[in-house]
Every structure is written in C-alpha cells, then in structure tokens.
Amino acid sequence: MEPFSFNSPGFVNLLASQSSPPIDVDSAEAVGNSPGLVKPLERRKWVVKEDLVLISAWLNTSKDPIVANEQKAGAFWKRIEEYFNSSPQLIGAVPREWGQCKQRWGRVNEQVCKFVGCNEAALKEQTSGQNENDVMKASHDIFLNDYNNKFTLEHCWRELRFDQKWRSHALSVKRKEACPEVVPDDEEVRPPGVKASKAAKRKRDGNEAAYDQIQTMLSLKNNISKQKILDRLLGKNEETLSDQEKSLKNKLIGEML
C-alpha cells in the first residue's frame, strides 16, 4: 500500500471543497454580515445636553395635568422618548429609545437624591464666613465620603434643586431667614387645585363678611359716641356754649340729619 501524500490531487480537492472565502477582520461590513460573528453594540455615553433635555422631558410629562395621573408606565416613557427625540437641542443626534431614557433617569434621580442629602448636611454646617462655593465643595466631600465615589451629575442637581421633590429643606429655611418676604424667581409656583381654590374662596368670603361686620359695629359705635356728645351739648344753655362747642353742635346735627 502506497503512503498517503499531502500533495496528491485528491487531498488538494478535499481542502478546496471545505474551505470558505477569506474574511477581512478590519472590515465593518464583513464583521456585521459574516455568520457566527456578532458585532458588539456601541455604548453611547450621555452628555450634559442630553441629561438636561431628559430632565425637561420628565418634568413636563410628569406634571401634565391632563395625563399625569392616568398614563401607564409604558405610555409615560414613550411620551418622554418623543419629547426627548423631538427636542431642537438634539438635532442631528442619534435618537434614544424609551428604555435608555428610563434607565438614565433612574440613575440621575438616585444620584441627585443622594446629593441633596449631602448638600443639606453641608448647609447645616455652614458658617458665616463660607460662601456658596465652600458649601458646594463640602457637599462633594460628604458625597465622596459617604458613597466612595465622586458626584458627577452636578448639572442635573442644579436643574432639579428648586423642584419640590429635590428641594433642600435646609436651603429653604436659610432663604426664609435671610429674606422672609422674597420668593426666588426660579422657584416653581404651582396652580392651586379645585379643592384649594374652593377653600380659599370660602375663607375669603368669610373674611369679607367679618370685615363688613366689624365696620358696621365701628360705625354704630361712632354714631353712638356722637349722639352722646350732641345730647350733652343740647343739654347746656345756648348762652354758655363756646364758639367751638356751637360749631361742633351744628356739625353733629347736620351729620345726624
């Protein structure tokens, strides 16, 4: 029996039949279209502009009085996705899906809530010589000490800090003490609800009725006082009255008539 030769025509034909075309690993098209090779998905980082648009979308959608209490979770995030992708600030950017928006919002909300607590602690420890920059540095130091990582979403906190959910109680107290009658321009003023409006109307109507009643009592008391003065002047002899008393008597008679 002759030994098998790797150079024999049969072996060469066998290799040729089982071989596949060569693949260029540097070609994106080859990687994407070749079976058995999965192109890894590119993970896009969120930039500051996207975070701010996402926050605006969440605030506007969650506070929409028409749909806020009736929309389901899926519809809620679909509305945020539409708001986000239609923003003129993101023209030319790759659109985000609602799942990405939801995941990013979860992180923003969690981190900002933690930083609010750190900022409140820093405000409580603020001394008279410290300014806002000192308080902010102390807030970051507290966050780093408590959670072992740096707070990188300060732009999100600045966008949300005056909203009721993320407002620092210590900051509100300090502002009230500093200027009790001044309301910050950027603080949100929410319209009263139906029940609150009715209660305010009842209170206003009640106050007006009480005011009218007090005015009536004062007027009556004033008239009684004038009547007593007039009676005293009329009881005197006309010849003994001074010119001032005569003038007062005539004036009171004219008012009574």
Could you please describe the fold and organization of this structure?
By secondary structure, the protein is mainly alpha-helical. Helix content is 62%, strand content 0%. It contains ten helices and no strands. Helix 3 runs parallel beside helix 7. The longest helix has 42 residues.
Quick overview:
With 257 residues, this protein is an all-alpha fold. It has helices at 9-18, 28-33, 48-62, 73-85, 98-124, 132-147, 154-160, 169-178, 194-235, 243-256. The protein is 62% helix and 0% strand.
Describe the structure using short key phrases.
mainly alpha
Mind sketching the topology for me?
Layout: H1 9-18, H2 28-33, H3 48-62, H4 73-85, H5 98-124, H6 132-147, H7 154-160, H8 169-178, H9 194-235, H10 243-256
Helix content: 55-70%
Distance between the termini: 152 Å
Sheet-strand content, in percent, reads under 5%
The class by helix and strand makeup works out as mainly alpha
Total of helices: 10
Described by strand count, sense and barrel closure, the largest sheet is: none
What letter string, H or E per element, gives the SSE order?
A: HHHHHHHHHH
Query: Which regions contain 5 or more consecutive residues with pLDDT less than 50?
Result: 19-38, 178-189
Q: Please state the CA-atom Rg, rounded to the nearest Å.
A: 40 Å
